[in-house]
Amino acid sequence: GNLKLLIRELDRLEKTFISWGIFLILEKLKIITYRNLFKKVSLLMKTHQIPVQAFTTALKLMGIEDVDNDETACIIANLIYENKIKGYISHQHQKLVVSKQNPFPPISGS
Fold it and tell me: Model pTM?
């Protein structure tokens, strides 16, 4: 999942995708791409308490330059809300605490 390329192509072809009636479906792909990237970060960190900064760094490595820890925490909060990640954000410690069992549930069709 190349997040930078996905975002660039969604932006470039936005009008076409809207005219075809598929833009919102493709926006969901972005959410799944975030989830998959964050899952990889979690696996690399080998802990269930992951600093938000680790995810921010991953986003920056993917070419998303204008992101900070607050925006990253917002993305994580949305992924938790959508049940793409099982866990919670400890704002006091600036960490994502993920479930020890199945922290990244399989992606469903909803």
Answer: 0.85
